[in-house]
Amino acid sequence: MSVLIVGSTALDSIKTPKGENPRLLGGSASHAAVAASFFAPVKLVGIVGKDFPKRYVDLYRKHKIDLSGLQVVEGKTFHWSGEYEVNMNNRRTLATDLGVFETFSPKLPALYQKSDYVLLANIAPSLQSHVLDQMRRPKFVVADTMDLWLNIALPDLLKLLKRVDGFVLNDSEARQLTKEDNVVAALKKIHKLGPKYVIVKKGEHGAILSSSAGLFLSPAFPLAHVVDPTGAGDSFVGGMMGYLSTAKGSIDSNIRRAMVCGSVAASFCCEGFGLKFTTRITRKAIDERVKHLEKLARF
Amino acid sequence: MSVLIVGSTALDSIKTPKGENPRLLGGSASHAAVAASFFAPVKLVGIVGKDFPKRYVDLYRKHKIDLSGLQVVEGKTFHWSGEYEVNMNNRRTLATDLGVFETFSPKLPALYQKSDYVLLANIAPSLQSHVLDQMRRPKFVVADTMDLWLNIALPDLLKLLKRVDGFVLNDSEARQLTKEDNVVAALKKIHKLGPKYVIVKKGEHGAILSSSAGLFLSPAFPLAHVVDPTGAGDSFVGGMMGYLSTAKGSIDSNIRRAMVCGSVAASFCCEGFGLKFTTRITRKAIDERVKHLEKLARF
């Protein structure tokens, strides 16, 4: 089965202690779609300007990503530039040029509307809801978010949360949303907002899932050298949803391994600038690293 | 087999957002010894003043801790007081009264000198070395430490590290020691200082072991309510060494489960002030939580 992914499609100019790279392919949907593509066919929904480099369209195509939901319009592609500190958990946004993204209204091609697995990658929650409005009874919908929406669009986010099966956010966002310092306690509070599956991402420390089946502690693959963490969280949810959409059996019986696959996809993402490393790997490399991670976590 | 534990024996006055408790039984050796006592007989080496409450001696005895290495001398017991913020990863020391600890020179009773398993819990590295000077060919020696010794006794610590099998420190200490921001890279650097087994504690995020057998990612037991994290790290190494000292087979084949047992001991420690909760549990409660943790981490 395929997975529908909506989110931002952007150009990222990134500086980390390991180097500097301008106008890389970026955005939540790009990272999530490439990570998901190793597991399942992907249908992308996004918007880019006429300046969007053909080589990036080719890169999507190389990953067999269905682009019939990618709007190409007059104007400039969303451009983000940021700089990471030596401790790459800390980053500073240098510039955000929304460009064509400012007027983005996701339109789903008819063939997209019947998708069973839907990933609402990080964009404004009103746009995430607008995508759901166009869907016909999807089987499993997961939304990701970021601190920006907690700050400026909380009512929209709360509306969205009543309509999704799964919700993914990072630990500081979980604290901000629930005013609860303890992540385990925060997870419980977030269930009350709607989602049956709540996942808190903790970067290099892995992720925690809370569902009716209890908690799951997903490890992160340990990396001695991180080049650029941009898009790691998007790769995590993308890999997870890609795996889930093709796995046989119930969500409950697959979501743990799906998270580990997402975690591994995120680890590859961190090893190169933007999508440079991720677009060079294979499904086999992911499977090998999942096996490796199993060994590292066994006791 | 028994485990020899040397470290601080103190009275702790602790304030956390959950309450305030004066003159609790504390110190690295106390926490480590109680945690280890669930797995193995413990020989304690420490010093207290004549003001040390009899009820705490009784508490050690309840845990069948051998006190022939506990010096009771004229003067006041080491007293520490501290306050935790809402985010309990942050704490502030309000007062440190060394008392009799200032003149502490660990003396090992003859029966202690042949111990196979030695835990040099957190005290000055020169004292940790002094204990090793008195040992006859121990089988497995692990040292714990704290940032204070990195700041004021680094040469002593570096000397000690050449003499121990295992070294335990937390993530920020690992960064400080190696000037390496990435924990995985830091682990590799620490091996070069001597220890074959290096363990970095990451609090609620678990711990990482590096050894010739590779890495091991030990999960932490997720707690929705933390009352007082004081002594959690000491409980971790104590539980680990207690388990190791009685397990059959090689260190390599037991150390992963030993770390998980330590992690579980640490989780109980966090659920009460000082040692209040830990001294109420049983080995059975630990084993059940280890099983629970196995389920939470399985994928």
Strand order of the largest sheet of chain A: 5-4-1-8-9-10-11-12-13
Number of helices of chain A: 10
The total of beta strands of chain A comes to 13
So what's the oligomer here? homodimer
The residue-averaged pLDDT of chain A reads 97
Q: What share of residues of chain A is helical?
A: 25-40%
Q: Return residue spans of chain A where pLDDT drops below 50 for at least 5 consecutive residues.
A: none
Please write the string of helix (H) and strand (E) elements of chain A.
EEEHEHEEEEHEHHEHHEEEHHH
Coarse morphology of chain A: globular
Q: How much of the residues of chain A is beta strand, in percent?
A: 25-35%
Helix/strand/pairing category of chain A: alpha/beta
SSE layout:
The structure is a homodimer of 299-residue chains.
Chain A: E1 3-6, E2 10-16, E3 19-26, H1 28-37, E4 42-49, H2 54-62, E5 65-73, E6 79-84, E7 91-97, E8 117-120, H3 125-133, E9 140-144, H4 147-152, H5 154-161, E10 166-170, H6 171-178, H7 183-191, E11 197-201, E12 207-211, E13 214-218, H8 232-246, H9 251-270, H10 283-297
Parallel strand pairs in A: 1-4, 1-8, 2-6, 4-5, 8-9, 9-10, 10-11
Antiparallel strand pairs in A: 2-3, 6-7, 11-12, 12-13
Helix pairs in contact in A: 1-8, 3-5, 6-7, 8-9, 9-10
Describe the structure.
Two copies of one chain form a homodimer. The first copy, chain A, is globular and about 50 Å long. Chain A has 299 residues and is α/β, with parallel strands linked by helices. In chain A, helix 8 packs antiparallel against helix 9. In chain A, 36% of the residues lie in helices and 26% in strands. The model of chain A has no long low-confidence stretch (mean pLDDT 97). Chain A has a nine-stranded mixed β-sheet, sandwiched between helices. In chain A, strands 3-2-6-7 form a four-stranded mixed β-sheet. The interface between A and B is medium-sized, with 35 and 35 residues.
